[in-house]
Hints:
The structure is a homodimer.
Chain A: H1 5-28, H2 33-46, H3 56-68, H4 70-109, H5 114-139, H6 148-155, H7 166-181, H8 189-211, H9 218-237, H10 240-251, E1 254-256, H11 257-280, H12 306-336, H13 338-346, H14 350-362, H15 378-385, H16 404-407, H17 416-434, H18 444-465, H19 481-497, H20 502-510, H21 516-533, H22 537-545, H23 565-568, E2 575-577, H24 582-591, E3 596-600, E4 608-613, H25 614-625, H26 627-640, E5 646-648, E6 651-653, H27 682-698, H28 702-713, E7 722-724, E8 729-731, H29 736-746, E9 750-755, E10 758-764, H30 765-776, H31 788-796, E11 803-804, H32 805-809, H33 829-836
Parallel strand pairs in A: 2-3, 8-9
Antiparallel strand pairs in A: 3-4, 4-7, 5-6, 9-10
Helix pairs in contact in A: 1-2, 1-27, 2-27, 4-5, 4-7, 4-8, 4-9, 4-11, 5-7, 5-14, 6-22, 7-8, 8-9, 9-10, 9-11, 10-11, 10-20, 12-17, 12-18, 12-19, 12-21, 12-22, 15-18, 17-18, 18-19, 19-20, 19-21, 24-25, 25-26, 29-30
Amino acid sequence: LSPVFSMYGRYTQELGVYAKEEAARLRDGGGLRRVTSVRSRSAELLEYEKDPCAKCHVCTSRCQKFLISRVGEDWIFLILLGLVMALVSWVMDYAIAFCQQAQKWMYGGLDSNMLLQYLAWVTYPVVLITFSAGFTQILSPQAVGSGIPEMKTILRGVVLKEYLTFKTFVAKVIGLTCALGSGMPLGKEGPFVHVASLCAALLSKFLAALFGGLYKNELRNTEMLSAACAVGVGCCFAAPIGGVLFSIEVTSTFFAVRNYWRGFFAATFSAFIFRVLAVWNQDEETITALFKTRFRLDFPFDLQELPAFAILGIACGFGGALFVYLNRLIVECMRKQKTINKFLLRKRLVYPAMVTLIISTLTFPPGFGQFMAGQLTQHESLVALLDNRTWCRQGVAEEFDYISHSHAWKHPQVNVFITLILFIVMKFWMSAVATTMPVPCGAFMPVFLIGAAFGRLVGETMAIMFPDGIHADGSVYPIVPGGYAVVGAAALSGAVTHTVSTAVIVFELTGQISHILPVMIAVILANAVAQSLQPSLYDSIIRIKKLPYLPELGMGHHEKYNIRVEDIMVRDVRYITLSSSYREVQEVLMTGQLKTLALVESTDSMILLGSIERSQLQSLLSLQLGPTRRLDHLRRHAQDNGTHTHTLGAHTHLTSLDTMDSPPSPPCTHTHSYTSNSSNTSARHGVRFLVSVAEVILNPLPQIAEWEEQQLDEPVDFNNCKIDPAPFQLVERTSLHKTHTIFSLLGLDHAYVTSTGRLVGVVSLRELRKAIEGSVTVTGVKVRPPLASFRDSGNTTSVSEVTELHKLWNRHRGLSLPREPTPPDMEDQLDLVFLCE
Amino acid sequence: LSPVFSMYGRYTQELGVYAKEEAARLRDGGGLRRVTSVRSRSAELLEYEKDPCAKCHVCTSRCQKFLISRVGEDWIFLILLGLVMALVSWVMDYAIAFCQQAQKWMYGGLDSNMLLQYLAWVTYPVVLITFSAGFTQILSPQAVGSGIPEMKTILRGVVLKEYLTFKTFVAKVIGLTCALGSGMPLGKEGPFVHVASLCAALLSKFLAALFGGLYKNELRNTEMLSAACAVGVGCCFAAPIGGVLFSIEVTSTFFAVRNYWRGFFAATFSAFIFRVLAVWNQDEETITALFKTRFRLDFPFDLQELPAFAILGIACGFGGALFVYLNRLIVECMRKQKTINKFLLRKRLVYPAMVTLIISTLTFPPGFGQFMAGQLTQHESLVALLDNRTWCRQGVAEEFDYISHSHAWKHPQVNVFITLILFIVMKFWMSAVATTMPVPCGAFMPVFLIGAAFGRLVGETMAIMFPDGIHADGSVYPIVPGGYAVVGAAALSGAVTHTVSTAVIVFELTGQISHILPVMIAVILANAVAQSLQPSLYDSIIRIKKLPYLPELGMGHHEKYNIRVEDIMVRDVRYITLSSSYREVQEVLMTGQLKTLALVESTDSMILLGSIERSQLQSLLSLQLGPTRRLDHLRRHAQDNGTHTHTLGAHTHLTSLDTMDSPPSPPCTHTHSYTSNSSNTSARHGVRFLVSVAEVILNPLPQIAEWEEQQLDEPVDFNNCKIDPAPFQLVERTSLHKTHTIFSLLGLDHAYVTSTGRLVGVVSLRELRKAIEGSVTVTGVKVRPPLASFRDSGNTTSVSEVTELHKLWNRHRGLSLPREPTPPDMEDQLDLVFLCE
């Protein structure tokens, strides 16, 4: 076999095997009808690398017809999405509550024997978490973790296909239910963003299969994904507004205001259904907030309490940064320790089981758990913490237990403050450790809970210090520690995620907005502190997982102002010319990696005419060398040789190929002879035709080889090829900053660098990322300066770079800042995803 | 004079006049010190068209030093802005309350005589409104109206300088106070966005004058402006979150998430100070919401009430669209009626006075006003409407008057329903008319009020229909009509402004979030209806005022898919080449309009090298022909001629110019002779020098003329000229959609169209706007289709236009869609602003 065949060899072999199987089946029954399916199947095989979006030009006209009914379809899609997600959320909550109840029953039923009780308490979560980890590992490892970092990357424009499959959906939903049912300090919110996105992607595919056309538009799908993120948060907390804002803050860099609607509508609908289900299930009388508080309305807090709230916010900022640091430290420690790492890689389920064992042992209620309200689930703890009574003033017991949950916080020997402090400290590291387990899990809810506990601690302290409140004149307004809990929850979760919309989420969660000012102040201060110390949890995970996300530009690294595109671009661009032969196209396809290839006028002029998608070139090539033309050629060849041909209807039977000599090497080189029987049934015709097709494709006879060589030497006919006439261009002297802004804004994957129309290089996300990281990374993770948002402003949009002309004249002088090649450890597996895709 | 002088003639004459005046003053006193001021003044004159931002390259290095302390300065700026705006808002509220109280006193004190009472009631607002209109007209006509449309345009990147001056600030603040103090149905919110932006712009200028460097960065100022918009809404309603979201929705197309912070921080701080001032002033005990409601928390509404809320939302959608239509109709009617128009243009104060007279007559409490709660201010009406009692069930009077405001709604003879309906109908058209008056005013608050009244009406109806509430099982929960008022207010204001963030604003205004679901549902439905019928009020005003804003692309006009850049671009591009002479530069400067000029390699190749700012070229030209070089030349000329020169210190005296013959034509062609007296005092030296400089510049002597001709023929030296090496480029086949997206995203003013590196045209905002409007405008105002946001999605981001190559080959074929020239009435005065600027 000549190397020319290496590419098509794969196809022909596959097709050959398939054709034989099909022929065997047809011989039994079947009929001519099936023959066409072979052709469509072969077309599929040839196009198997094609992007579904590449077909878009086919359906453009159809799209335009559909556009009128577009609005309606959008509504329907969003309603469906909201409905499905609300159901998923509600069912999952139900299942989780059931799991947790089962554990309590088991634990409660065995109260005669402490050891049995302990075993029941510990075994249950270990089994659930191990199952969750194992199930996820087997079905879809992409379902592990939060999912927000991945969604951030996907919405940036990088295709991570395996993150949006049905398998991942199943793994995520079931894994998450088990993980949360175990009672570990894990959250539902992050994974829910991922689940909603999965749901949107699958719904799109489903509707595309049903209705076609419109739902195939990939750009539209991206917009739906961003709405789905809002739905995820919205139906998880029944917080539509907070959900929309949180998803914007967490996933976007530049937000198109027109998408705002979509998110609002879908999230509202989803939250509505989610809460209506609770009403129908008789859990609630009407639609109310998830963690409804009952603070007094007339005087929620005194002006003089604001410093306490501010201090709470600053402390939460430090706490949030510490949490992110701790979380990353644990992951990095385990990675560095090679023995641990090897062991864990071999026995993947040992780590989650071990972690669960330790955590559940520590929370065992008759043991250490009695000092940290270990018996409560997250939901119960939060309800208790947001309570509007003052715990420290209730004395020892009297009315403390009218809600059973509050009882857990009161220990006969131990002060409520000690309980709170222990709860905070233990939950802090437990949450940081638990979120590193390879199960679907988020960190938002645990952090939220810790924040609420910390706020409650501060509130109770304030209540002790000012028993009659601070307000001086007139009536007595005692301190409301529950208000501090709300503020603390918002501040800590805001600090960990680097968002301010947690403020809105708490209002929607608690159903009260009276503490708006303290919450806003604390959240802003917590963000200011946390952002100056650590990246957000999601950015940290992006770095840990080495996802292909474009980092933001750092401040204070002014050398980057001098980096220009010419310093980072790849000069060895793969291109094809107008006069290229098919052979050249084939070679380019086999060597390059980028999704699109440049089309230049000629190798001399190098003037960029446009870009062609890889899949387009593949189909050009397959058209030229495909089975149809092969058969055509063979038929003509056979006709020329005077062999008898048999035509029946539209089908051309190629027979008597045994007149040709057998080829020298390939594995299955039997040549069969068929003599034509004009009285055959159509089924038999089908079988024969099929087998002969398989033979022709399978056996690269010398004539065929020769014919292929000829075909490859022909110049490419671009007439049926779709070309993008306006690929994105930069000039060599475009600064890194401008490039970064344009890539972020337009969500580019790559851009061509031209010099007075001539193609001189190409810059992809990969080069850009390396250039940015090369000068920012200090200790493995980019450290963001105080309120990063404030700092980026001046730099990122500096569009008008003025430079002196004499520099323009001697353009190809020595580069001002020759860049070192980036270290090979950057060549992560994931890097390839967005380059090959 | 040769035509060459026409450009510099202006300068020289101005300078000559100035120099003579200065010389006269110097002769009296003054001294040598003043001489330098002449030079700086002349430099000013020569640079008078320069953009302040063009100097940016000078301060880049300084900027970089400042960048470290950048974050701190941002904080300080935002705190200052928040503080100032809170103070302005509070003082204005105080003044308005005082005005309204004064009217009530006057009205109340005259209750003996109905006629006097009527005169007092009517005269007071007429005087205030007339003063407001007159004051604004004289000081700054730009202060008229809402200001949000202008801010939308400015944030889009179009410079409307006169909208951000100190004069406008004063006019807006004082005009607004008077307008609102008159008690007309006008709002504070829109103008406050403008006031906050003015405040930010002035603060920037002030800080730039104090500290320089950083505060001159114009890009940063734009970001600060977008934060200022949030502050404006935030401190007007004490609604920081709603303020941020509303300002984003109203002013942005693509929002940079990093700006989110800035807005949040500034708006929170501002709202905080605004409410703290109320506490300090003993108006409130602590910080609470502006219109605090006291609805019950445990069961705010029943699930079965949701259809009523939905219907309310849909009705508000129709109402909102009607309001926008009515408002525009009034403006257009008056414009079309030429006699009215002429009359109103001559007597500008008649219209507002007339409108005020009619409105205040109708609201006169003893007259028709008694049936529509005419005696209440907007604030009082809103407090009454959001009341948590049910009006219809209170019977005739009993406890109805424990808040005095509610009394106004109850008429002895007339049902409360009639009062509400009259209130809604009358206020509806009154607000629509009042907002067309040429005073600073917004429409948000009046619309909000009407919405609340409509909601109250629906709520009261529901309360009548279901006296014991709808809830079936267990306890009785009566309907809360106040909740309907909240929902109606949010829905109607949302419908008029096309925003959903009004939902958040009502939560913050009322301090209760219990009705979140009905509010969200109603707002979304109202938006869906309103958007399908009319543009938003702000877009409508943009069209009425013909502001240079880039409209959004419409749906269902598929012909626009076929419009490409080549169809709309200006082919006659002004450019300069590397070998251009100064004369060519001068000619290009005198003919072109765009802010920047293209630099191409040569007229033959037309390869685009970059773009140069107009101001850069002007300074190049002035360097070449400026006074320094003129004097230099003359001095050398004089030296060569052997005339005696006189050197004293650094000053070169040019005297005895009388040896030259006088020029033929110019108006002031007297040549004076000065003989040198070496014993003169320095003051006299100064005078003489000055006069001689003036002479030299003033009199284009033949030698000078000849010299100038020579100078103009020299090739331009670009060495000291800042060139943008990467101006934005499009290709001819870029679609209108892509162009629109790129212009919107990057805030471009113009883009060059290149064909394989060669400059073939230029597209500016103007062409783009005309192309879009050309195919969308039907009845003067673009009609937005249902939920416009939904529709734009698929189209706007269609980046990958694939086309067939054979079209690429015969590129210069006949254009597929030749566009007609746009009608001359589009050539509005304002159009020029963004082209010349």
